[in-house]
Amino acid sequence: MIFLSGQTINLADLQPLFDGPTKLKVSREVKASIVNSRKVLEKRLSSGETIYGVNTGFGALSQHKIDNNDLERLQLNLVRSHSAGVGPKFDEGITRSILFLKILNFSLGYSGVRWEVPSLIRECLNHDILPVIPSQGSVGASGDLAPLSHLAHSLIGEGRVTFRGRECGASKAMKTCGLQPLKLKAKEGLSLLNGTQVSTALAAEGLLRMENLLKSADLISAISVEATLSSRNVFKPAVHRLKRHRGQIDCATNIWNCLKGSQIVKSHEGCYSVQDPYSFRCIPQVHGACRETWESARRIAENEINSVSDNPLVISDSIGILNSGHFHAEAVGQSSDSLAVAASELGGISERRIYRMMKGKDVSASPFLAGKPGLESGYMMAQITAASLVSENKSLSFPASVDSITTENGQEDFVSMAPIAGRKLLRIIGNLEKVLAIELIVATHLLDLRRPLQPAPITKLLRERIRRSIPFKENDRILTPEINLAVELIRDRLLVSSVNSKIRLR
To answer: What CATH number does residue 470 fall under?
Structure first.
């Protein structure tokens, strides 16, 4: 249950929406702010004031005045004409997040919609009636128009929804739950379409998944450090406090703590190896930079979550109704692009660690960790798969937000492309999960080869958790099922949760 009472919403508050069906309650104070905003709009409209999108056309057609008798028809036409999205539909978690963020935007009291609008969205969320929203078609300025139009199209009973595991007509699902489709009044179609809710929902999912992956990457790399007989000393927190990067310090502390008490580490304290490759020695510097980028993107996303992104803005009776460009998602687009670069880098350094473990003699093991080299190939193809995913991520990391294509006859002459940045981000993160899964499998296998020496208590705990799902196998086999199982362990936060019960991960 989420209770909306005018409080600041944090990124973590959205996690239940991605996890499954979620109930929402709205306070009386929030309802009152929405009702008061509508009163201001109706008063201005009755005075004969010209208000963009209320009694005028939209975008490049804003110079066309609309007769009072056609105001409701104007809103209906807007929703129908702008429902031009294409591509696969958004998944249920993103769709729930979009619905919630739209209610949150209305709750701030600057949109001028009737209470009936957010109330119906809330009921759809509470009954898990989820609009079918195509994922492509928004340029992230003037709002996420096409996808939000499909949301509105469902609210008026004409669109399609996912309900109880099946797709059906919106009016049918609403009737089953005793709900009535919305009859749009002045400005309501425009307010439903304007906003950055789609771009922000995509960024939010990316941030939540990356938060888990940043910690998971520290844990997995700790296994790799131990298994490859690399130095623990380079992770001493005192060394990293000389660099004033919080993310670097936190990563180094995590790995240092994970390797405490390791017989494997102790076994090579007097070795002649001077320095390890950067992919091991510089883990805190790289992982830490990714953490800093995540923190910056989180701050921007939370600011957007709690911001007004409608237009025009119903400020107050004394100030009136003003136009701006708060629907422009440039901040979200740039932050999603930055996070995509961080995710790509996190996968890149992971693949380099996998590559080193393939070299055999460099890590005191057989080439490709094969049981019978030559007759067997070991993890040769797993590393190639990781390389393929990393290369794909590099291609996807070109920032969407540096592009702009003029639309609406020049009215929208500079757009953000934020939803494209968000969708690319999620693709990159999906690839990153697979790369880390491959490193986890390979590093754990090499760790097992160090027996009878015992790993650190924390890495031993991780190994035991992994081996419950993926038993140790020495000979060649199909690796895809194991990779998929490892992805699930990472994605479901099982690695992080198992360690958090023993030490506090930063």
So the answer is: 1.20.200.10
Query: Do the Cβ atoms of 6 and 28 come closer than 8 Å?
Result: no
pTM over 0.90: yes
Catalytically active residues, by annotation: 52
The per-residue pLDDT for 142 is 84
**Same domain for 355 and 496?**
yes
**Are residues 44 and 172 both part of a single domain?**
yes
Contacts of 303 (CB under 8 A, 6+ apart): 331
Same domain, 209 and 127: no
Give Cα 32 to chain centroid, integer Å.
32
Q: Are strands 86-89 and 134-136 parallel, antiparallel or unpaired?
A: antiparallel
The two structure tokens encoding residue 329: 């998602």
Q: Give the tens place of pLDDT for each residue, 331-374.
A: 999 999 999 999 999 999 999 999 999 998 888 999 999 999 99
pLDDT at 320 over 90: no
- Residues of the chain with pLDDT > 70, as a percent, come to 99
- CATH no. for residue 17? 1.10.275.10
Per the domain annotation, does 506 fall within a domain?
Answer: no
Cα dihedral across residues 133, 135, 137, 139: positive or negative: positive
